[in-house]
Each structure stands twice: as C-alpha cells, then as structure tokens.
Description:
Layout: E1 9-12, H1 18-24, E2 29-33, H2 38-46, E3 50-53, H3 54-69
Parallel strand pairs: 1-2, 2-3
Amino acid sequence: HDITMKDHIIVDAEGEHAHEIIRAFPGRTIAFCSHMNGERIRAATEAGAKVYSRGEFFTRIQDIIHSIEN
C-alpha cells in the first residue's frame, strides 16, 4: 500500500519512536499525549503534527477521523 496525500498517521506522542514518525510525515500526523507533557506537545507540534490531549483525542476520535476523510 502506497501512502497517499490523504493518508494520515495517528501516533501516541509519548511513544518511543513518535518524534521520528512525526518528522517522517509532517502535516499528515495526528498525535495525542498527556496534557501535562508540554515538552512532547511542543516537539510534536514543531515537527508538524496536529496534537490533541489524550482525553480530547479519545473523546473526539470519530470527529477527528471524519475531518481527515473529507
């Protein structure tokens, strides 16, 4: 499967290789992490991810996925 421009990656920004994944797919990565982890939020945002707090991500997951499908 080739990744197309419409494809997105969802990643836990606190995961071991998250920063490398986000940098590999800037603008196409959706990340989530603890709202208390300002360092990871900043790093993921600067690397090109759209970042949500963990709670917001899982509360709004259907809306988030719908927004990238259209």
